[in-house]
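User: Please run a holo structure prediction.
Assistant: Happy to. Please share the sequence and the ligand.
User: Here you go; the ligand is magnesium ion.
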Amino acid sequence: MLSVTEAEAIIFNLVQPLNNQYDTEIVDLFAADSRILASVVTSQLDFPHWDNSAMDGYAVRYADVQQATQQQPAILEIIEEIPAGYQPQSTIQKGQAARIFTGAVMPAGADTVIMQEYTQREENRVLILTPPTKPQEFVRQRAAYYQSGTQLLPPGIMLHGSEIAVLATAQCTQVSVYRRPRVAIFSTGNELVAPDQPLQPGQIVDSNQYALAALVRQSGGEPLILGIVPDEPGVLEKAIAYAVSNADIVISSGGVSVGDYDYVEQIVKFLEGKIHIQAVAMKPGKPLTVATFRNQVIYFGLPGNPASTLVTFWRFVQPTIKKLSGLVEGWQPKFIKASTRQELRSDGKRETYIWGKLDLQNGIYKFHLAGGNQSSGNLINLAQTNALAVLSVGQTLVSPGEKVQVLLN
Ligand code: AMP
Ligand code: MG
């Protein structure tokens, strides 16, 4: 059986990121958060756009004020007042100054700003009491941060507030981003009913489809919900064929084990899917079907137990969606070392994933085991968890206070 590391390598190798020319759409800036930039953004403007003041104070000629002291202040005539957003009208000559405010355009002739705390105002004159330390002091120069033609943002990054601010400043109001990967989702099982249906004896409410839809959205994908599919080869074949022709990734849950009603792998093969993975040495989540179709669609047949579905999603599917979505960095699963608060146990036979909560206390990550039964059918204590402790094969015990590898999800 494949190890988790082997399975991961196979899966990540199968992922072809979306095409940066064909798989894109244009969004405006208010819709750009969490989208992935598809092309390089270049500034058409210098930034700052013009020389401007970094302080409230006086725009002066350095030569006029460099010798100023408390005892012998430089005395300058104020010829203009320049608020932010205003175009200066005059040129500062020897012995002159302009009143200026933060962000306002520097007047011609002036090269330095004296902050108002170092001055004394006397009607239309200003006394400079402290000299500047250097010419250009408190002047933000045109193009000091970047020039027109500079590449501001590379493709493949996720846009958030700070990147969106850069785009707005460069007047890029329409931005080309990758479309969201389309992820088809369905549940398999004769026993399943939708949450809004009355429950007959022997039936189980389908929770996986709802969990997966939320997780797909969180990972940057667009879920395509296909419903509950019974364990009937003909119906399953139609569902898989439809999913494969309408999505980039297909996720089904259930029907991948060795039971008589587990048809997923058989149908995938019948539809000419190439099987790459049939099982992985992990707990929960041993039965796992991963296949690709000729149109490059990746098929994940996840085990149906609700906890197994979630764990295998976090471990393999989430990074797949992120890599496919065009993200260049940071799509990989994120592991950290944390100190466990409770004892963690495994039989040591398979890599074991134990859910709990991670928090930061006095600069150290602590892992708190979720209370209750960690069986793969028991969902309730998965709620409000944010991490999975990982015990490797052969590791049977991690005692309180010891370090453990933790997967963030
Ligand atoms: P399977 O992987 O099909 O053998 O299913 C394993 C177990 O998970 C069975 O007890 C199923 O009833 C349960 N199960 C399968 N699919 C779902 C689902 N979509 N939602 C909740 N439980 C499920
Ligand atoms: Mg089943």
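DSSP finds seven helices and 28 strands in the chain.
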